Here is the input.
Amino acid sequence: MKRVYLDYAATTPTHPGVIAAMLHSFQDVWGNPSSVHACGQEARTAVEEAREKLAHLVGAQPDEIYFTSGGTEADNWALKGAVAARHEPGSHIITTPIEHHAVLETCEFLKEQGCSITFVPVDRYGMVDPDDVRKAITPKTVIISIMHANNEVGTIQPIAEIGKIARTAGVYFHTDAVQTVGHIPVDVNQMNLDILSISAHKLYGPKGIGALYIRRGTKIPPFVHGGGQERHSRAGTENVPGIVGLGKAAELAQEEMDGEARRLTMLRDRLIKSILDKIEHTCLNGHPTRRLPNNVNVSFRYVEGEAICLNLDLAGVCVATGSACSSTSMEASHVLTAMGLPPELARASLRFSFGKWSTEDDVDFVLQSLPKAVSRLRAISPLVKK
Here is the structure.
């Protein structure tokens, strides 16, 4: 059976160049980077070269990059670290209701520890108004955490503008850039960022490795205690093959990003137009233009998104009903409901996300399968007025 993968926002296939670099590391660069002998120093060199490549991709200095186990750990470190650095009861955090669960659940944990949380609202496109962020800042605010682009609807936030507000107020500013690094330009200086989260498996790297950018002078305490790895900030023997893979993925992204973004935008816009033209009672979710090049999120009235997803899977098309981390939940998407969609429309959504190996033929295949699936499900739906 032909299989079309359109769930790149959940995870990406590992790039062959990344696999080759990792295999070399597994086979030939297997020393402990903390060892002083030649084998250890060869591994140390590989780690530092990867750090330089990732730093270059986001406009940082190599000593501002700290490797983690992924984006979730990076988000946890950013928020918990900012609160721990302040050493004050009642620390205040500003975020949004459409963040990834790695941020939302960490905020919930910190609330239980005595922090206060302000969720600035988003509009119907999932966009934050920077002025709402400005108004939410208090003398107790320790960190503002707003994702660069939403993983479900693809809306890109005005990060640079919010960053200026945070800097003027003397508040740390963090962004979860898991969906954007390697796909659209990210520059920590132009965006006025203090802290930024990265995950390798969203940019054709391996799973289980990520990074946290921490600007020089930002006081974030160690996240894991033990040895002196990652400049005494994250103990534990480094995952050298994973780090090498992330470095190679960053290098490839630097070379291919601009052209790939243009290509994916064409696929994205074609699919959006075709769905809205061919299938009645549909609506696009997220900002129509300020969105990720690869993201299409559409609601199909009178039918459950989960049912369409399963029907498409049987037809050979892999898509998602929301973020992969919560796709098994029958609850309406917290992102879509925060944007003002009623629960029944939020549950009727699908996310299509393109990537490096997506083609025009894939779009054609979806447009053959999707209308049939929606029509079939609406024919038996109790929600349709007969």
